[in-house]
Amino acid sequence: MHLILIRHGQVLLLLRANTGFADGSWSVPGGCLDAGEPFLLCHHANPDGQARIGVFFAATRWSGEPVNAEPGKCDKIDWFPFDELPGDLLTCGRTGIDAYRHGRPFSLDGWPAG
User: Fold this and answer.
1) Does 114 reside within a domain?
2) Which residues, other chains included, contact 81 with Cβ-Cβ below 8 Å and sequence gap of 6+?
3) Range of the domain at 81
4) 77 inside domain
5) CB contact at 8 A, 11 and 96
6) Are 39 and 63 in contact (CB under 8 A)?
7) Which of 4, 7, 59, 112 falls between 20 and 30 A from 82, CA-CA?
């Protein structure tokens, strides 16, 4: 599950570390699913060609400030303007953010056009 957290036209990203997958790359935060929360379903093929389903959520209101609750798996968290996302953002996260911005409830990522 992925979370697109939006504040003042920016999205929160985390820098992956010590997970064994895409360490050193930026990603949207992940977590668990509660009923009625997803806004996007993304059929994703990772760089190794393995099929994945990504469920995305978006939040524009919350209480408190985001913190790095898993410093062993995340080196840093930071806010990025939608039009200045880092180049090393995982493609599934980029696809989810793009779908959110354009109001699309389903996306494909990593699959050949056909």
Assistant:
1) no
2) 9, 10
3) 2-109
4) yes
5) no
6) no
7) 112
pLDDT along the chain (114 residues), means of 10: 92 94 91 69 79 85 92 95 95 90 87 66
Q: What is the DSSP letter of 108?
A: E
pTM above threshold 0.85: no
Rounded CA-CA distance 15/12 in Å is: 10
Q: How many residues does the chain have?
A: 114
Written in H, E and C, the secondary structure of 26-85 is: EECCECCCCCCCCCEEEEEECCCCCEEEEEEEEECCCCCCCCCCCCCCEEEEEEEEHHHC
Q: Both ends of the chain: CA-CA distance in Å?
A: 27
Please count the CA atoms within 13 angstroms of the CA of 26 that sit on its side-chain side.
17
CATH number (domain holding residue 41): 3.90.79.10
